[in-house]
Amino acid sequence: MVPKIRTFWAGYITALSDAKYSQTQIIRMCKMRNFSISRFGIQSLLQRNCKNQQNVDDSAPGPSRRRHAPSRTPEVVTKVRRAVTCENPMTQRAIAKRTGVSQSTVYNIIHKNLRLQRRHKGRVHKLLGRHVQERKTNCRKLYEKYLAGEKWKFVVTLDEAWVYLDNCNKPRAIYYRPIDKQPYQKWAKECRESFSKGFMVIAGYSYKGKLRIRRVGKNVKMNSVYYQTNVLTPLYRTEIPALYGPETGMAWIHQDKASSHTSKTTRSFMNRMQNETGINAIPFEDIPVKSPDASPMDFCAFGLLKRALGKRRPRTLDGLWKACKEEWEQMDMSSLQRSLLQWKLRCRAIVKQAGYQIEHDRSWRHKI
Questions:
Q1: Residue 35 has pLDDT above 90, yes or no
Q2: pTM listed for this prediction
Q3: What is the rounded distance in angstroms from the CA atom of residue 201 to the CA atom of residue 260?
Q4: Where in the sequence is the domain holding 92, given as residue range(s)?
Q5: Is 178 exposed, middle or buried (0-12, 13-18, 19+ CB in 10 A)?
Q6: Does 185 reside within a domain?
Q7: Are residues 240 and 347 part of one domain?
């Protein structure tokens, strides 16, 4: 683009050109007056004069621009609000096509007018109406009877989970490439075509410490008999008394509503052990259903265990079991204790959410 030339020099160069001076002579005469101009500048100036275009001074205001009609009108904002506040909103491109505005206008309406922020949906259990009501009722019971005040220090929580070889030596989900060049090598996160090998583990902890992690053997059915013999018996007889000592009678066992836990034989077994040892079990009527967001083993302990296994490199199931035992023993006890305190907040948050999930709503901590 040719820079603007003041009116004096434009007239001076035009006069020299009319007097049949060559471009080289015009450049030399302008240079003698301490003004520099190129051949391209002279040619452009003369062409504009031939088209009767007026040369303006630098201080003169530029041509006025016509202001376009605003796109973010109340009607368009209302349409965009309806499109993005539904359960499954359309893409911004589809919304722009439907409303007849640009995609950047839709983006500005969402972020500036509506002040909304995009978030990914969390994976949660499907809840029916009876599940929602039961979660609300039982979370209140669980908090008031067994977690309020200092009661949470005497609750022993345990659960089962599956661990696989795929949980170990996880590849990173990111890679780096040059900004201005094509990737010199394409990376992809490959998945295995066969099912990974693994086994079930049983673990638990309380404020006083961790329970021993157990491995369910191969081809062993996790039924009531196995649960009573290999889990509950050592729990009642040795592990809980070793943690609480003279305060053993104040301890409560928390477990989920798995079929092996809620069977008639398991209930009668726990009643008998309660009479012999004085250790109580939280009634299943006070435990919320489908509530991994209200179980410390689910939202904390097993998550920390699998995260630690991601850095290990076992090749066999025996190596995986060895890594599980080592990582469980090395797990920070202070983190587990904080999760028990968060357990109280989660139960209160679920009640405040009327029984609905809180995992997908990270702002629940600020609402308590």
A1: no
A2: 0.68
A3: 15
A4: 76-113
A5: exposed
A6: yes
A7: yes
